[in-house]
């Protein structure tokens, strides 16, 4: 029995984590991609819990940057960035429920060099931005195109290759009444850029509105902690997720489970607020479902909590706080 | 000739700042109030530049808190807070233009005690919040109802009365593709809670989408710098604004002009980023329109710039940076 | 009777706020100026409460920048910046007491142009710094020398003059066991760069160690809120303060009183923490000495509290929170 | 040949990383422990490069908390916390050099239960503090005493034990003219609370003043990322370090090397500034010593940089940014 059979998704999901139907959102099916997370558009697909959905995702630039001589400021058209597949309407999902999304696989697609990273003005972790607004001149616009391959990884240069470690940069549900840019991460998920949102993990997302409206996109072939210059190895993919629904499990922010740990995810500014949010939710989770007293959980995480920095470049910073399953055991 | 005749609104507006037509948005006309800033709804009113619009605003709680024994957590239904009048569609407004809004008057309405302030869990400047997420227990829920009168002011208690110094807490245009909670301030305006947005001032707002979609609401009878506990003296009003349109004046964030100063407004987190954003825009404005070199403006504002803290409690903090007209003179 | 006769200093001070002796700290008496706040050096002067001390202060660069062609990076020798007069040992002062310092006058000295402001790398509110460490190139080093005169003010250029509004940029007591750079503001005072620390005000400082060890320096001829580029109009002065001692009044951070308001001063990062610290102390003060309930003070300051941004450029940001005397009355 | 033989310490150190002499700082030798990092005290030991020094460290409370019924607020006497061994004067060390400290071993000492963690008012990551000053009541004071053993680890309760993963919480050199509380981390090291500062690692520290004045203490038996409640598993130890000196290698902040990676360490507030500082130094290091162009290093770390959160509770937050040796190779 794999860990997944004991996952919360498998134990509590309406479909018990099973794959009951298969669907594809090709570029053709998707048609217009989306740039906000919201419920003001028609779903591209309606499914029951247990659906497995494969999506043809675009890279964060919708393929607009094809050459190292391209200028991002000329090719990109803010706010039409970070195109998303979906929304997927999940039958039975209502505000207060939880969507469980098991990431089955991410496979690169498109011609080589299919990976793209760039430096562009007013964006990135070590430059002035619209938020950290300074007077100094921007770094030069720079485009880097790299080959991405499942086996040989990301070829940075002749000397350096990085393993192909794909994950979903942006995934989430619609807010109840808002429609928020897909560049933003928040309590509903969105542009978290957190490398743990990878094949083999289950992401738990709050349902804020009837049907949940699941979106996803922005898959990365590799990314360091913080996504330092703001742009990971962006690449188009076929991304396959299994969707289940946990009725009545109300969570305040995204959570994640894999074979090794339970994680809560906080997105805020300044960065300490992202860390506070993630850790507080983890404590509340340990108190609600793992039999800990809150104070005890607070003191125990002081000794064994783990922090993963997702992004330090988006409108909100994202941090995941986690605890090993070997320490906390299984939730009730 | 009053200062207004030399204002940017009067000099550059399509209607030259004149009052050319009059309109009312009564509660009846408004019907459903709005809780997001966006262009996904039908305008409640369409006007040409030069329109004077009087709106019956609700208080931030839409009148739900009527007694000091009310519990905010029982009476309020997040995210249906901070109800807004509008949107007002302005003919001729296009992305890249600027909306000029002269605030003519704010008059309280409704039965006494018509002023309300509250302490509620997870909200306020000196308590844990959803962003600054801590484990300590909240302060007790507290409601304070106070009499608000134009002449006698805000009666805090038998000993203390504050002058009636009303302003518009929330005003702005629709983002291009987003629909954002009216609790949030940002580049399009929104919940800035900045006391300078008061009768006698002109607010300049970026137009992000055709028609501009002007919203306003959340008028305060009095407020200190920072809106410390998160809730000013909220009260229902009739608020009258004159709307003009400046074609081709593209601004990155709200600006403000009154008889004494020019101000730029930044909303971000952490608070230093709000200050940075406001000051950088002021420098850019001085360089673009007042004949200053950027470095010279930077050094001069070091000696005479003024900072007003709007809010330190909303999802983004708001700061206004200003410079006296007596120092910089008139823009070209 | 002036407001000073009712001040806390006059009512509670050992010397009742009176001027009982006069002392001078000339450049010759001072000899070596100091660059840290601490008790590891010999006092330059020992006084009883009631002492009036006139100090010949240097500007923040100890006069090293004499021409607009000087390069700060060549002329300045970090950490030997922001030279301080003192320390002054105050007889009878013990940990837990409060030092009251009434600022009698600040008079410019030295040859014209005696005012200096500069832009230098890694320092300032709108550039990358050692703390906000970014990769973009610094602004060009720039020096501005300006004439400073009590009557005619600060002559910025042929068109713009600013009034002479001097204050003490850096003043405080020694920490108990630390010796901290005079570039830093904190709970003991230090480099607050807060324009309210001006002639006519009383500053209240915590005594952390026997004798208090009062330092002061870094007087500014003019400064805007935030001290944007990091360097106000620095100038050498004769600064005269009257020193009294309030036994047993233990305060957590500097406070200030003038004819109009009571203020508490917070220094921290991020900026919201400076604001939180200042406002919490003000609430505690109102609860301890003005007869307010803490919750009532919190709600009242929401409606009438005032915030002054001192600096947004030093290792800690400084904010003053104040309330009008006309609102809170006199403390017990 | 172990990795250490190729370490920077072994290649560049005056003693070539060798152990040339042995010394002990017992409690008796140490006598008075220290609570500030500075050069205002006499060294407890003077050594040449190549010295191996074993120190009897106290726990962060100097053993004052012996029972779970102790009240920290009664037992502890701020600022006399976090006692440090040293200072150790290193012959030949001058400002601009680098001290290399190889951590040979950490061995617990003292009677069981020798591990201590506590919750105390105004301290910790999820409570109001002196910096994040709020009005809500503190959590109850709580003391947890746990058995700590090299083999069996940290016994949290009957069900949960954590492995013994000791590291030095506080280590650094004296600032040039300051004397800073041992509770603070900064450019000279200090209270970083970073778990990578563990046996098997080399820490590189800036020398700011003649003799370097090395201090260390505050060893932890286990700690999660962020040291959430502010107090790890504190315990007394015998900690053995080997000290070497690299002449003329001027670094702006601590660096670290172990068998797997090179790390730079940033301490600042808000947390994003700690991350910025760490990553900028790593880029500068890669540019100076590993043959990278700065822009290339910036873009590469975006794909493979690693972030470790040390503390989110001290006066400055600490973050380590690292890159695998397998990616960047060896420095020149």
Defining traits:
Jelly Rolls, 9-stranded mixed β-sheet, EC 3.5.1.- (chains A, B, C, D), 332 residues, 21 strands, Endonuclease I-creI, 2 domains, homotetramer, alpha+beta, 6-stranded mixed β-sheet
Task: Write up what this structure looks like.
Four copies of one chain form a homotetramer. Chain A is α+β, with helices and mostly antiparallel strands. Chain A folds into two domains: 3-249, Jelly Rolls (Sandwich); 257-328, Roll (Endonuclease I-creI). Chain A has six helices and 21 strands. Chain A has helices at residues 8-12, 27-30, 72-75, 271-289, 294-304, 325-328, and strands spanning 21-25, 36-37, 45-47, 51-57, 84-90, 98-108, 115-119, 142-149, 153-155, 161-162, 167-172, 180-181, 185-186, 189-190, 202-206, 214-220, 237-246, 255-257, 261-268, 306-309, 317-324. In chain A, strands 1-4-17-6-15-18-19-21-20 form a nine-stranded mixed beta sheet. In chain A, strands 3-5-16-11-14-13 form a six-stranded mixed beta sheet, with no helix packed on it. A four-stranded antiparallel beta sheet of chain A has the order 7-8-9-10, with no helix packed on it. In chain A, strand 18 (255-257) and strand 19 form a beta hairpin. The two termini of chain A are 19 Å apart.
